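Weekly structure sync, notes
Attendees: PL (lead), two postdocs, one rotation student
Agenda item 3: pending single-chain targets
PL asked that the sequence for the first pending target be pasted directly into the notes so everyone works from the same version. It is reproduced below exactly as submitted, 304 residues in total.
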Amino acid sequence: MKTVILDFDNKKQMTKPLSIGLGFFESLHLGHGKVMDRVFLMAEKLDADTAIITFAKENEFDKSVLFTYQERLRIYERYTNRSSKIGFVIVIPFTDEIKKMPAAEFIDKLTTNFNVKALIYGSSYRFGFKAEGTPGLLEKWSKAKGYLAKRVDCCYFNSTVASSSYAKTLLKNGNLIGVNAILGRFFSIEGEVVKGQERGKTLGFPTANLKVAKEKMIPVPGVYKTITTVDKAKYPSITHIGGKPTFHDLDDSIETHIVDYSGDLYGKIITISFIKKIRDIQTFDSVKELIEQIKKDLLIARQL
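Predicted structure, written out during the meeting:
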């Protein structure tokens, strides 16, 4: 997969024919999956390569995202369709110019800079200044611009359109099962392991303290059954999000105990995938009670 920064001053960035998925693709959820199915199908029919569009520096326009720009690039890198990988990611810098750009001008620049053979998008896709661009306009302009326009129906979850916005609402409300259903995979967070108070180590359950991007959304406080990826290896784990009231520590943190892992994690980038919530944060009367509960949590973490 190659990343290409959209350069409006470059009148012909790429001559390779492309089948392009239009959208933000913040989470690559099930609806995006339907779009990508068509992107790959059209690429085969037109002897073109595949590409999707996303924005850089999402925190400039969204203070809370399901997946950061770097996380999204890694998700795209792992994505496969018919045993094929995404060929190109076209990254749009979210500048003042982009914010104010009319929909027609955006499509004009896109089709000028790239050899666009097909544009594929969801039925709810909007683009351009004040979201004036619609699927209908993309279809109206297609003949003059020389591309095939393909609209894909939305996916639904609980009678609501499966979207990143809906997934965000579910995550805020603690509905991790719903979020995972919309994504078609486990919700995950990625971050750097930093030094903490090492309280878990003194209890016999060392934890990795995670530092995440400030715009990154995280699950509601609680203890979760998770899978932690370290250097491409996956381990069962339990992850604590929130304060530690037993120790009168109300500062929120993200700490994960990785089962059967030994090694120095400081400075490493790890990924935690959330399977289900085990329990809420509790205040225990003694450290012994806390240790007994952690042992019970670990039994759940080890279950397949």
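Discussion points:
- The chain has two domains: 2-161, 186-302.
- Residues 30-46 form the longest helix (17 residues).
Action: rotation student to compare against the earlier draft before next sync.
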